[in-house]
Structures are given as structure tokens and as C-alpha cells.
User: What shape does this take?
Amino acid sequence: MKDTKTETAASFDVNDYLRQDRMPHFLCPGCGHGIALRALLWAVHEQGIPKDRLAVVSGIGCSGRLSAYIDANTFHTTHGRPLTFATGLKLARPDLHVIVITGDGDCLAIGGNHLIHACRRNLDITCVMLNNEIYGMTGGQVSPMTAEGRFTTTTPEGNTEPNFDACALAAAAGASFVGREVTAQVLALKTLLGQAIAHEGFSFVEVLSDCTEIYGRKNDLGASPEMMLAKKSAMRPYAYRNTVDVPFRPNALRTGVLTRTDRPEYGAAWRAMAARIREEE
Amino acid sequence: MDKRNRTTNVLIVGVGGQGVIMVSKVLAQLCQEAGHDVKQSEVHGMAKRGGGVFSHVRFGPKVWSPTIPEGEVDILVALEWAEGLRWIRHLKPETGTFIADCQKIVPPFACRSRKRGAEPAYAPQTPEEIIDQVHAGYVMDATGLAANLGNARAANTVLLGALSTALDFPEAAWAQVIAATVPPKSVGINARAFTEGRAWALGGTKRIDVTASGLQKSRAEVHHPQVETVVEITADWCKGCDICVKSCPERCLRLNDQLKAELALPELCTGCQLCSWLCPDMAISVTNTPVQEAAS
Ligand SMILES: Cc1ncc(C[n+]2csc(CCOP(=O)(O)OP(=O)(O)O)c2C)c(N)n1
Ligand code: SF4
Ligand code: SF4
Ligand code: SF4
Ligand SMILES: [Mg+2]
Assistant: This one.
């Protein structure tokens, strides 16, 4: 466990963590990214991380823009590369809690290679991928997370490619903490994000978010509340695994903590080597 | 030169998501219907949302090039203040008209210090300084005007209203093209926004009115035997997504006629906070204070 609980737990007011002069944010009405942002800030608060020791690194996308609204050390980087910037930052400043906010396109398309290597290294970073199954910001192109059959601007006849299972990918690449949650289960999401932040090593959280304005419309998924609630009922919460004899929604994606292993954290090994070299000199 | 024989150049600028393209579409359509040769060219999509967007509209008896040379812009319409300043040197020095929303969208990179109250590195020029440099100038709180009419996103139509005073098309023709361009459910608000913007600009050729309205908050107190619940809704942040309304277990919220959430049945509210957790726009805050504490 890290020394995160340094501030006494006052009740959470999201406004303490927002750059008030930047609000209201630019997301479309009902965009799931907003719910995820609030849950993340809540988790940060519950972990007792002082704002000066929080660093949020984001890529490009509607998801990437969220760092601009957070009143902490924020770093809005280039498309697909937030994990690389975060890696440098965490190695140079191990005292910071580094959280990466990225989108499904940012993280798995242009940034896919960086993700697998970040997972492999197991540096102590929390990567929060907001999966809305589309490139929201650029007008709704297909992403590696778009489900088969879905309509996007670049798949006007329906997507014919299968999508990734991002959590399985991250776990296979070596991430030592992997979890998934929907925005509608906001308490569970907050708890999961808190666990990911507290975990020592690379943690990957897939938040199933909704691009209401583009993906929702193109696929006739209803208004924001319907879209959000439909996701919730399409999942299999991990907590239900033992409650019934017949598996609950056996074919649905699982939510909750999916992988937690105890691998050596990369930063410690790297610093030990650096210290050794310095001693030898 | 005879005004009817030359090309009129209008440059519309702003940031992604504000509706620059809608303004230029309306203008181009109007010019075409009036029998002009029209060329419209734009740069968008390359910008990240929140990045710069601009559109050139040129019309006249015969237009050859789709882009306006520097210093040849007759009217510059800026949906965002700093974007207006960025393009102001493109305006015709002697006769150009500058129409701008005073609204500032501070880009993330302008935020170098996060100390409370620190000045971002944003264009420091005041509307007064800018108006002094141009032939005719209008700096207005188009976003505020539109918000007062019920939807801040109609700010671009408020500016269209101001633009209409600088060109020779009949008011009815503008109204018709706008109604045909915007989505059917927002025809009403856009018509009002246009009229408002036009009336405002008719008030003088060098006008500044940047009175921005403060944050509008509604507050409801609910008395329970053991806790005092306060539900606060920041109307200016609410985007009317309906999530809180559909998620409230007691069904005590609703959207009002301006599509803002409000606590319609406070007596039913249990203070469960679900609405505040799920609001994507952080527009709702629910606080529960034990009665003893609240009394002291
Ligand atoms: C190097 C580079 N390539 C392409 C782009 C254009 N671009 C901006 S955001 C984006 C995709 C964003 O999708 P995602 O990461 O899923 O974020 P969302 O908007 O859905 O949250 C792309 C392709 C860019 N900004 N930079
Ligand atoms: S385009 Fe989609 S992802 Fe982007 S803000 Fe709008 S709803 Fe959200
Ligand atoms: S606090 Fe609960 S009961 Fe009250 S308005 Fe919000 S969701 Fe409804
Ligand atoms: S959830 Fe928030 S933004 Fe949506 S209608 Fe309710 S208050 Fe408005
Ligand atoms: Mg996406």
C-alpha cells in the first residue's frame, strides 16, 4: 500500500478539483466521459492524494481534453502518447501519483504499442481508458473498440472488424491490475478507480463510456439515459459470480477487478540500478 | 468601385464546436438564393475540438478564388474573442467591420499557472482597444444573450443577427434560410437569437456590451427528521441530458421549458445523491447535514 491517505477524509466536493474558470466543460450533453471524470476525482479524493502530488496526463480526444478541467498538475500531450509522457514523468518524479486519461482510439489504435509496453514494464501508473467505441472528437470514425455491425462515419454499412477485449489485452501484456466498469455503476466505478490508484504497479481500467452525440445517434441507441442504462444491463458484475448456481449473464463482459498480480514494480528496479551505477562511479 | 460589381468577403472564425460552419452555410446559401456567385472554403476537422476553425465566404457577380487574400476581408465574424484577434489583420484597414462575441475560450496551453486567480496567458487586448482600430466594430456577449434566451449554443445565430445589419439582404430572407438550416426543434430559439442579435447591432456602429451574467444556481432545501438536504443545480452547467431525471429513484427531478434540470418535487427527495454522482456536467450538488449540526 502506498502512503496515499495523507489528508483527512473531508466530504467530497467535485468543485474543489475542477478549474472553475474552465467550466462548463466542452463535452456534449450526456457524454459518459463527464461521469467518469467525476468518479475519478472522487476516487482521488478518497485516496487522500493532495492536488500538488497528483499529475494527470492525457492524450488527444474528447477523453484527452478532460485533463484541462482538473485543478492539479495536468499534461495534455499528443495523440496516442500519454503513456510515454507519463512514463518519463513517473521515472523522474516517483513522488507524484500519475494518472493517464486516454480514449479507446488514443490508447489502442495510434497508442496500442505504447500500451502493451507500458503493461509489460509495470511502472506505477494508473491508466484510465474511456471506451466509447469510437473516435468521438474527430466526428465518429471506427475505432479498435467498435463492435461488429456498428455504424460509424468510416463504416457506413456497418463495421466488419471484430473489436479488442482491451482488458484481456492489458492483462496478457503484463498489467498487474486490470478492471472494467460502466459509468452507470458510479459507486463501483469510483471504488475500482480507487483500487487502481492504490495498486503499486501498472493498473489499467477500462471505463465503458457513452458517446451519445455521435455513436448513440448513428446506431440509434436512444437518448443519454437509455444508452447509459443499457450498458449497465449488458454487463456481468464480478460481485455476482457466486450468488447464483446458473452463471449470471454468462456471455456478457465482466466488470469489476479482473486481474491483480504481484509483479515487481518497474520504477523501483530502475532506481535501484541507477543508484548502483552512481555508487560504482 | 461600384459595390455591386465587386466581391464581398466575409471571414468567420471561432473554435471547434461553436458553429462557425453553420454561420458560413447560412450566409453562402442566402447569397446563392439572391443570385450571387458564391465560394465558401473552410478549415475544420484538422483542429482538435476546441482548436481554431475558420471559413471564408466570398460572393459577387463572379468569384474566382475561394480564399480571401490578407487585408481584403470586409467583415470578420468572430465567435471567440482571441480567434477574432488572431485574424484581425486580414480585415480591410479602411472599411472593414469587426463583429465578435466577447466570450473567451481559454485554450489549455494558455493555463501556465494553476494558482487560484492566476492570469492565463490569453490575449490581453480589451474590446475598447480593438474597436478603436477598426472602421466599424461590434463586441457583444452573444453567448450570454443566447443563454438568456434559453440556449447558449445559439450564440452563433446571435452573431448572424449582427452580421445581417452589415449586408444588404432582407431580414425575411435571413430568417428563412436559418429556419431551413437548423434542426427543426431549434427553429424557435434560433429565430429569437437572430432577432436579438440584429436588434442589438442596429444600436450603433461601434458598440461594446460585454456584461456577462453570473452563474445561475437554483437551491432547494429539503427537511428530513434527521438531516437537512440541500439540492443545488447550476443551470449554466446543465446541458439538459435527462440523465438525472431518468435516474432519480424518486422521480422528483424534471427538465424545465429551457431544458434545465430542476427539483420539481422537493418533498420526495431523499437526498440519496445519485443525481449528483451521475450528472456528466457536475451541475448538481446534494449535501446532507445532520439536523443538530445544521442548527448549531
Ligand atoms: C497524430 C494525430 N493523428 C490524428 C489526430 C486526430 N485525432 C484527434 S482525436 C482522435 C481520435 C480520438 O478518439 P478516442 O481516443 O477514442 O477519444 P474520444 O474522442 O472518443 O474520447 C484522432 C484520430 C491527431 N490529433 N493527431
Ligand atoms: S463527441 Fe461523443 S465522446 Fe465527444 S464529447 Fe460528444 S458525446 Fe462525448
Ligand atoms: S438526491 Fe436522490 S432523490 Fe433527491 S433528486 Fe437527487 S436522485 Fe432524486
Ligand atoms: S444530469 Fe446534469 S446535465 Fe443532465 S439534465 Fe441533469 S443536471 Fe442537467
Ligand atoms: Mg473514443
